[in-house]
Write a structure and sequence with these properties.
Elements (H helix, E strand, L loop, with lengths): L1 H4 L2 H21 L1 H8 L6 H6 L8 H25 L7 H28 L3 H31 L5 H25 L1 H6 L1 H25 L1
Length: 215
Amino acid sequence: MLRDLISTEVFTILIVVCLLLVASAKLLYPKRFNDFSSIVINFKYLKVYSRDQKFLDGFEALLFTNLSIGLAIFSYQFYTKSNTSVDTSEILLFKIGCAIAIFILIKVLLERLISSVLSIDSIVNDYLFQKISYKNYIGLLLIPINAFLIYSLRPDAFMFTIVLGFLLIINAIGSLSFFKRNQSAIKNNFFYFILYLCALEISPYVILYKLITNI
């Protein structure tokens, strides 16, 4: 049982931190947050804010931090539940969180670099903005999901699989909607875009899966 492996006080603190991060985003950027909260059913956020992308964006930084913490909590729960023999501690939770944040950041930087080399900056920048936005939206969903899994249930592998499938569907909606809305641009750069997808969307996750399974 997860409660016996690590004190729920740690998870409580982290969930409160996530709530404070989201509250700060809503307080500092009220209009943008309202548009962002309906991103799954309304593309207004993507159309308006993709035009004014910044390398350092306070709104995205707050939501990305929340995402990293949320994914760390969920991954820790899944990992410790699936591997009862592992040494569980707050340090492991911290390592998972740092690994997730570093992986995503390095991946985004590489994607921007490769898109510049292939001269498909405009389409990839829009794609990255939409992809990151949907991931940050998943970060919002993880707050109640993690709280429910920690305090209300004794989650098993099947339940984690269902939740993971739901989150992947949300992520897929973002990618598919981008492909649908940018068919002509993708067709004009089809070869380079497919090369980009294979190199930076598929292979990193294959390598990561291999590393995790070997460990």
